[in-house]
Amino acid sequence: MQTLENVAAVEEEDVSPAELRKRKRQDKHKKWVKDMKKDYPIYLLFIPILVFFVIFNYVPMFGIIIAFEDYKPGRGVFGSEWAGMHGFENFYDLFSNESFPLVFRNTCVMAAMNLTIGFLAPVILGLILSQVRFRPFKRVAQTVSYMPYFVATVVVCSLIKDFLSDSGVITDLFVALGAPKEDMLTNPKYFWWINTFAGIWQGAGYGSIVYVAAISNINPDLYEAAALDGAGRWRRLVNITLPSILPTIIMMFTMSVGTVFMTGFDKVLLLYNESIYDTADCLSTFTYRWGVEQNNYGLSSAAGLFQSVISTALLLLSNKLTKVAAKTSLF
After folding, report:
1. Is-contact 290 296, C-beta < 8 A?
2. Rounded to two decimals, what is the model's pTM?
3. CB 211 within 8 A of CB 126
4. In this structure, which of 41, 166, 199, 247 has its CB flanked by the most CB atoms within 10 Å?
Protein backbone atom coordinates (compact mmCIF):
# COMPACT_ATOMS: atom_id res chain seq x y z
CA MET A 1 0.00 0.00 0.00
CA GLN A 2 1.32 3.43 -0.94
CA THR A 3 1.96 5.88 1.87
CA LEU A 4 0.60 9.43 1.81
CA GLU A 5 4.10 10.76 1.02
CA ASN A 6 4.39 8.47 -2.00
CA VAL A 7 0.95 9.50 -3.23
CA ALA A 8 1.88 13.19 -2.87
CA ALA A 9 5.15 12.56 -4.71
CA VAL A 10 3.32 10.85 -7.56
CA GLU A 11 0.82 13.72 -7.76
CA GLU A 12 3.67 16.27 -7.88
CA GLU A 13 5.30 14.37 -10.73
CA ASP A 14 2.08 14.67 -12.75
CA VAL A 15 1.87 18.44 -12.14
CA SER A 16 3.69 20.91 -14.35
CA PRO A 17 6.42 23.10 -12.79
CA ALA A 18 4.28 26.22 -13.30
CA GLU A 19 1.36 24.64 -11.48
CA LEU A 20 3.68 23.48 -8.70
CA ARG A 21 5.02 27.02 -8.19
CA LYS A 22 1.45 28.32 -8.13
CA ARG A 23 0.49 25.85 -5.40
CA LYS A 24 3.52 26.81 -3.33
CA ARG A 25 2.60 30.50 -3.61
CA GLN A 26 -0.95 29.67 -2.53
CA ASP A 27 0.34 27.70 0.46
CA LYS A 28 2.56 30.61 1.50
CA HIS A 29 -0.36 33.01 1.14
CA LYS A 30 -2.57 30.81 3.32
CA LYS A 31 0.13 30.57 5.98
CA TRP A 32 0.60 34.36 5.91
CA VAL A 33 -3.15 35.00 6.25
CA LYS A 34 -3.35 32.49 9.09
CA ASP A 35 -0.40 34.13 10.86
CA MET A 36 -1.95 37.60 10.39
CA LYS A 37 -5.23 36.45 11.96
CA LYS A 38 -3.42 34.81 14.85
CA ASP A 39 -0.88 37.56 15.65
CA TYR A 40 -2.60 40.69 14.35
CA PRO A 41 -2.02 42.65 17.61
CA ILE A 42 1.75 42.31 17.06
CA TYR A 43 1.45 43.51 13.46
CA LEU A 44 -0.65 46.48 14.60
CA LEU A 45 2.04 47.42 17.11
CA PHE A 46 4.64 47.18 14.34
CA ILE A 47 2.83 49.65 12.04
CA PRO A 48 4.08 52.86 13.81
CA ILE A 49 7.65 51.51 13.68
CA LEU A 50 7.30 50.73 9.99
CA VAL A 51 5.91 54.21 9.27
CA PHE A 52 8.77 55.79 11.24
CA PHE A 53 11.45 53.95 9.27
CA VAL A 54 9.78 54.62 5.94
CA ILE A 55 9.47 58.37 6.60
CA PHE A 56 12.83 58.99 8.28
CA ASN A 57 15.06 56.30 6.73
CA TYR A 58 13.78 55.23 3.32
CA VAL A 59 12.15 58.39 1.94
CA PRO A 60 15.30 60.51 2.61
CA MET A 61 17.31 58.02 0.54
CA PHE A 62 15.94 59.86 -2.49
CA GLY A 63 18.39 62.63 -1.56
CA ILE A 64 21.24 60.39 -2.77
CA ILE A 65 20.63 61.91 -6.20
CA ILE A 66 22.16 65.19 -4.94
CA ALA A 67 25.57 63.47 -4.92
CA PHE A 68 25.38 63.35 -8.73
CA GLU A 69 24.11 66.91 -9.25
CA ASP A 70 25.40 70.44 -9.15
CA TYR A 71 22.74 71.01 -6.53
CA LYS A 72 21.26 74.48 -6.04
CA PRO A 73 18.72 74.85 -3.20
CA GLY A 74 16.72 77.39 -5.19
CA ARG A 75 16.27 74.98 -8.10
CA GLY A 76 15.62 71.90 -6.00
CA VAL A 77 16.50 68.30 -6.79
CA PHE A 78 14.59 68.18 -10.07
CA GLY A 79 15.73 71.60 -11.29
CA SER A 80 19.45 71.26 -10.57
CA GLU A 81 21.76 70.21 -13.39
CA TRP A 82 23.76 67.00 -13.38
CA ALA A 83 27.39 67.35 -12.36
CA GLY A 84 30.07 66.99 -15.00
CA MET A 85 31.79 63.75 -15.99
CA HIS A 86 28.41 62.04 -16.38
CA GLY A 87 27.38 62.99 -12.85
CA PHE A 88 30.57 61.79 -11.12
CA GLU A 89 32.38 65.11 -10.87
CA ASN A 90 31.49 65.45 -7.17
CA PHE A 91 33.19 62.12 -6.45
CA TYR A 92 36.26 63.19 -8.45
CA ASP A 93 36.42 66.43 -6.43
CA LEU A 94 36.04 64.41 -3.24
CA PHE A 95 38.82 61.93 -3.91
CA SER A 96 41.16 64.56 -5.36
CA ASN A 97 40.60 66.96 -2.45
CA GLU A 98 43.87 67.57 -0.61
CA SER A 99 42.19 66.96 2.75
CA PHE A 100 40.59 63.63 1.79
CA PRO A 101 43.57 61.28 2.48
CA LEU A 102 44.03 62.76 5.96
CA VAL A 103 40.29 62.71 6.68
CA PHE A 104 39.98 59.10 5.52
CA ARG A 105 42.99 58.06 7.62
CA ASN A 106 41.55 59.68 10.75
CA THR A 107 38.19 58.04 10.13
CA CYS A 108 39.77 54.60 9.73
CA VAL A 109 41.91 54.97 12.87
CA MET A 110 39.04 56.19 15.06
CA ALA A 111 36.78 53.48 13.62
CA ALA A 112 39.38 50.79 14.39
CA MET A 113 39.84 52.05 17.96
CA ASN A 114 36.09 52.20 18.55
CA LEU A 115 35.67 48.70 17.09
CA THR A 116 38.36 47.16 19.29
CA ILE A 117 38.78 49.04 22.55
CA GLY A 118 35.32 50.61 22.41
CA PHE A 119 33.54 47.34 21.60
CA LEU A 120 35.37 45.25 24.21
CA ALA A 121 34.59 47.68 27.06
CA PRO A 122 30.83 46.82 27.37
CA VAL A 123 31.63 43.09 27.11
CA ILE A 124 34.21 43.27 29.89
CA LEU A 125 31.93 45.45 32.04
CA GLY A 126 29.05 43.00 31.56
CA LEU A 127 31.29 40.08 32.61
CA ILE A 128 32.50 41.99 35.68
CA LEU A 129 28.96 42.92 36.75
CA SER A 130 27.85 39.30 36.34
CA GLN A 131 30.48 38.23 38.89
CA VAL A 132 29.27 40.63 41.58
CA ARG A 133 27.32 38.72 44.23
CA PHE A 134 26.40 41.63 46.54
CA ARG A 135 23.15 42.76 44.86
CA PRO A 136 22.90 46.31 46.36
CA PHE A 137 26.39 47.16 45.12
CA LYS A 138 25.63 45.58 41.73
CA ARG A 139 22.49 47.74 41.30
CA VAL A 140 24.38 50.92 42.26
CA ALA A 141 27.26 50.07 39.91
CA GLN A 142 24.88 49.39 37.02
CA THR A 143 22.96 52.63 37.61
CA VAL A 144 26.14 54.70 37.81
CA SER A 145 27.54 53.14 34.63
CA TYR A 146 24.27 53.71 32.72
CA MET A 147 23.88 57.38 33.67
CA PRO A 148 26.41 58.96 31.25
CA TYR A 149 24.51 57.50 28.29
CA PHE A 150 21.47 59.62 29.13
CA VAL A 151 23.47 62.83 29.49
CA ALA A 152 23.38 65.11 26.44
CA THR A 153 26.50 64.94 24.28
CA VAL A 154 26.93 68.71 24.62
CA VAL A 155 27.15 68.34 28.41
CA VAL A 156 29.53 65.39 28.12
CA CYS A 157 31.85 67.32 25.80
CA SER A 158 31.74 70.34 28.10
CA LEU A 159 32.83 68.14 31.01
CA ILE A 160 35.63 66.63 28.92
CA LYS A 161 36.87 70.09 27.97
CA ASP A 162 36.89 71.14 31.63
CA PHE A 163 38.65 67.95 32.79
CA LEU A 164 41.31 68.15 30.05
CA SER A 165 42.01 71.90 30.14
CA ASP A 166 45.38 73.11 31.44
CA SER A 167 43.79 73.45 34.89
CA GLY A 168 41.50 70.41 34.69
CA VAL A 169 41.36 67.48 37.12
CA ILE A 170 42.68 64.89 34.67
CA THR A 171 45.45 67.23 33.50
CA ASP A 172 46.54 67.79 37.12
CA LEU A 173 46.64 64.01 37.59
CA PHE A 174 48.94 63.57 34.58
CA VAL A 175 51.10 66.49 35.75
CA ALA A 176 51.50 64.74 39.10
CA LEU A 177 52.71 61.67 37.17
CA GLY A 178 55.33 63.74 35.36
CA ALA A 179 53.54 64.87 32.19
CA PRO A 180 53.81 68.50 31.00
CA LYS A 181 50.98 70.87 31.90
CA GLU A 182 48.95 71.67 28.80
CA ASP A 183 45.44 71.75 27.37
CA MET A 184 45.24 68.16 26.13
CA LEU A 185 42.58 69.02 23.54
CA THR A 186 45.07 71.20 21.69
CA ASN A 187 47.61 68.39 21.30
CA PRO A 188 46.87 66.31 18.15
CA LYS A 189 48.50 63.12 19.47
CA TYR A 190 45.95 62.81 22.29
CA PHE A 191 42.69 63.21 20.37
CA TRP A 192 42.22 59.62 19.14
CA TRP A 193 42.53 58.33 22.69
CA ILE A 194 40.32 61.07 24.11
CA ASN A 195 37.60 60.30 21.56
CA THR A 196 37.78 56.55 22.24
CA PHE A 197 37.68 56.75 26.03
CA ALA A 198 34.99 59.45 25.97
CA GLY A 199 32.84 57.04 23.95
CA ILE A 200 33.58 54.24 26.41
CA TRP A 201 32.69 56.40 29.40
CA GLN A 202 29.42 57.45 27.81
CA GLY A 203 28.31 54.15 26.24
CA ALA A 204 29.96 51.19 28.00
CA GLY A 205 27.40 50.98 30.81
CA TYR A 206 24.42 51.13 28.49
CA GLY A 207 26.03 48.70 26.04
CA SER A 208 26.66 46.17 28.81
CA ILE A 209 22.90 45.72 29.37
CA VAL A 210 22.70 43.24 26.48
CA TYR A 211 25.54 41.12 27.87
CA VAL A 212 24.25 41.18 31.45
CA ALA A 213 20.85 40.00 30.17
CA ALA A 214 22.47 37.27 28.06
CA ILE A 215 24.53 36.05 31.04
CA SER A 216 21.47 36.00 33.31
CA ASN A 217 19.76 33.58 30.88
CA ILE A 218 22.52 30.96 31.14
CA ASN A 219 21.32 27.77 32.84
CA PRO A 220 22.61 27.91 36.46
CA ASP A 221 22.86 24.12 36.49
CA LEU A 222 25.92 24.45 34.25
CA TYR A 223 27.70 26.54 36.89
CA GLU A 224 26.70 24.15 39.68
CA ALA A 225 27.97 21.15 37.75
CA ALA A 226 31.25 22.91 36.97
CA ALA A 227 31.67 23.93 40.64
CA LEU A 228 31.13 20.31 41.72
CA ASP A 229 33.86 19.27 39.30
CA GLY A 230 36.22 21.72 40.97
CA ALA A 231 36.12 24.57 38.44
CA GLY A 232 36.87 27.95 39.97
CA ARG A 233 35.21 31.23 39.09
CA TRP A 234 37.70 32.00 36.32
CA ARG A 235 37.29 28.57 34.71
CA ARG A 236 33.51 28.90 34.82
CA LEU A 237 33.78 32.32 33.22
CA VAL A 238 36.00 31.07 30.39
CA ASN A 239 34.37 27.70 29.74
CA ILE A 240 30.69 28.49 30.36
CA THR A 241 29.92 32.21 30.33
CA LEU A 242 31.94 33.29 27.29
CA PRO A 243 30.85 30.41 24.99
CA SER A 244 27.21 30.95 26.04
CA ILE A 245 27.18 34.65 25.14
CA LEU A 246 29.39 34.30 22.05
CA PRO A 247 26.42 34.46 19.61
CA THR A 248 25.31 37.72 21.28
CA ILE A 249 28.83 39.14 21.05
CA ILE A 250 29.03 38.22 17.36
CA MET A 251 25.64 39.79 16.64
CA MET A 252 26.56 43.04 18.42
CA PHE A 253 29.98 43.10 16.74
CA THR A 254 28.41 42.73 13.29
CA MET A 255 26.02 45.60 14.04
CA SER A 256 28.89 47.73 15.32
CA VAL A 257 30.88 47.18 12.13
CA GLY A 258 27.99 48.64 10.11
CA THR A 259 28.04 51.91 12.06
CA VAL A 260 31.74 52.15 12.90
CA PHE A 261 32.49 54.72 10.17
CA MET A 262 30.09 57.21 11.78
CA THR A 263 32.81 57.72 14.47
CA GLY A 264 30.54 59.72 16.81
CA PHE A 265 30.09 62.81 14.62
CA ASP A 266 28.50 65.00 17.29
CA LYS A 267 31.24 64.27 19.84
CA VAL A 268 34.04 64.93 17.34
CA LEU A 269 32.39 68.13 16.13
CA LEU A 270 32.06 69.47 19.68
CA LEU A 271 35.60 68.55 20.74
CA TYR A 272 37.81 69.31 17.76
CA ASN A 273 39.42 72.65 16.90
CA GLU A 274 41.82 74.00 14.30
CA SER A 275 44.91 72.98 16.24
CA ILE A 276 44.00 69.27 16.10
CA TYR A 277 42.46 69.04 12.60
CA ASP A 278 45.30 66.72 11.57
CA THR A 279 43.97 63.94 13.81
CA ALA A 280 40.39 65.01 14.59
CA ASP A 281 38.91 65.78 11.18
CA CYS A 282 36.90 62.78 9.91
CA LEU A 283 34.48 62.04 7.07
CA SER A 284 31.45 63.16 9.10
CA THR A 285 32.92 66.55 9.99
CA PHE A 286 34.30 66.89 6.45
CA THR A 287 30.77 66.35 5.10
CA TYR A 288 29.33 68.85 7.58
CA ARG A 289 31.94 71.50 6.80
CA TRP A 290 31.54 71.31 3.00
CA GLY A 291 27.77 71.05 3.11
CA VAL A 292 26.72 73.48 5.85
CA GLU A 293 29.61 75.94 6.03
CA GLN A 294 30.67 76.09 2.36
CA ASN A 295 27.29 75.27 0.76
CA ASN A 296 28.81 72.63 -1.53
CA TYR A 297 25.91 70.23 -1.17
CA GLY A 298 26.93 67.98 -4.06
CA LEU A 299 30.40 67.27 -2.65
CA SER A 300 29.09 66.76 0.89
CA SER A 301 26.40 64.36 -0.40
CA ALA A 302 29.08 62.44 -2.32
CA ALA A 303 31.13 62.16 0.88
CA GLY A 304 28.10 60.96 2.82
CA LEU A 305 27.23 58.41 0.13
CA PHE A 306 30.83 57.14 0.07
CA GLN A 307 30.69 56.72 3.84
CA SER A 308 27.38 54.83 3.63
CA VAL A 309 28.67 52.51 0.90
CA ILE A 310 31.79 51.67 2.92
CA SER A 311 29.67 51.00 6.04
CA THR A 312 27.30 48.73 4.12
CA ALA A 313 30.19 46.83 2.55
CA LEU A 314 31.82 46.32 5.95
CA LEU A 315 28.53 45.11 7.42
CA LEU A 316 28.02 42.53 4.66
CA LEU A 317 31.65 41.40 4.84
CA SER A 318 31.55 41.08 8.63
CA ASN A 319 28.31 39.12 8.50
CA LYS A 320 29.77 36.77 5.86
CA LEU A 321 33.00 36.20 7.81
CA THR A 322 31.22 35.47 11.09
CA LYS A 323 28.86 33.11 9.27
CA VAL A 324 31.82 31.16 7.89
CA ALA A 325 34.05 31.29 10.99
CA ALA A 326 31.54 31.04 13.85
CA LYS A 327 28.59 29.40 12.06
CA THR A 328 26.31 32.21 13.19
CA SER A 329 25.34 35.52 11.64
CA LEU A 330 23.06 38.51 11.97
CA PHE A 331 21.14 37.74 8.76
Report:
1. yes
2. 0.81
3. yes
4. 199
